Amino acid sequence: MTSTTVGKSSPGASRNKRRKRRNARLWIPQYHGAWAMVTIPPLVGVVEGGFRPVEIVVFALWFVGYFLFYSATVWLKSRCKKRYFPPVRLYGLIVAALGLASLIGAPYLWRWALVFSPLVAIAAWEAWKRDERSLISGLDTIAAACLMIPVMFDIAGDGAPGFAASPRAWLLTALFFGYFAGTLFYVKTNIRERGSNVYLAASILWHASWAAAAFVLAWRGEVGWIHAAVWLAIAIRAVVVPLLARAGRPVSVKAIGFGEVFTSLAFVLTVF
Question: Are residues 56 and 116 in the same domain?
């Protein structure tokens, strides 16, 4: 007769599950809010700029590069402990191979390394300081993601545009930087920096400025009025939700996450 309790796992099985979860954290990025930031800008660049087969390789390079960025951050935070290095090694090799393939298909892409290198250096320094969730680190990462829009435009033009990509490409880059940076302020005012008057004031000022800019752009015909209205709604949210928390009626983290998904969809669908 066995003494196994139905519905309960053995201590050994529980330890194995915990070990698997810890190992997964070394390989899979845990910044769940960053997935939209990683995927949307390059796709926007392809949709607006036009498709070239080499963009598939560049997108893969960018995507695996994000995994490398995450694993390298964990490794640097650990002061380069060996057990954190395997993901860095594997992702680094894949990135090197994809980078070489990208340069073969689009040799002119080397010039973008001049732009991304300082951003990578800042991210590495923030990780070494164990301050990868700082405002500087967040804005740095957002800038890198948004720059994938003109990169894809450059590829669509077979390297002819270069840094002088079309005004539309840089307008979209600016708009997405404004939006994603705004989400950084918004999330901080509701979670990590809840109660900080400085962050709340910065968030309100940031969102109000971009909402005003969106209405100016709509008046000039560069974006639609619906998109400007989305900016206004985002700005109102940046004021109301943190103030609700201060009044003792905080919005749950889960609700904030779902709200970000909905807002991102509204932003993307109206920006075109």
Answer: yes
Cβ burial 120-139 (10 Å sphere, 16+ → b, else e): eebbeebbeeeebeeeebbb
Mean pLDDT of all residues in 176-189: 96
CA–CA dist 87, 69 (Å, integer) = 10
Instruction: Determine the angle formed by the axes of helices 167-190 and 35-49, rounding to 10 degrees.
Output: 160
If asked whether residues 125 and 242 sit together in one domain, one would say no
Please check whether residues 116 and 147 belong to one and the same domain: yes
* Structural domain count, the chain: 2
| pLDDT tens for each residue of 43-101 | 999 999 999 999 999 999 999 999 999 999 999 999 999 999 999 999 999 999 999 99
135 shares its domain with 59: yes
Look up residue 120 and give its two tokens.
């990578």
Residue closest to 167 by CA, chosen among 182, 143, 149, 140: 149
**Structural domain contains residue 17:** no
Q: How many residues does the chain have?
A: 272
Residue 29 domain boundaries = 24-163
**Helices assigned H by DSSP within the chain:** 11-27, 35-49, 54-77, 85-105, 110-128, 135-146, 148-156, 167-190, 197-219, 225-246, 253-271
Please identify, among 132, 163, 194, the residue that sits at the C-terminal boundary of a domain: 163
- Same domain flag for 77 and 137: yes
Six-digit token string for 6 = 């139905």
**Residue 134 zone, left/alpha/beta (φ > 0; ψ -120 to 50; rest):** beta
SS3 call for 131: coil
